[in-house]
Amino acid sequence: MKKIMLAIGIIFIITTGVFAEKSISLGYEIGEIGNDFIMGGRITSPFVFGGSAAARISGDAVWNKTDGSSYGFFRAGLIGSSGLINKVIRLYGEGGMSLLWNADGADRLVFGGYGLFGFEFFTGVNSPLSYFIEMGTLGGSVSRLTGFNTRTGLSVYF
Question: Which residue has the higher pLDDT, 157 or 82?
Answer without folding.
Answer: 157
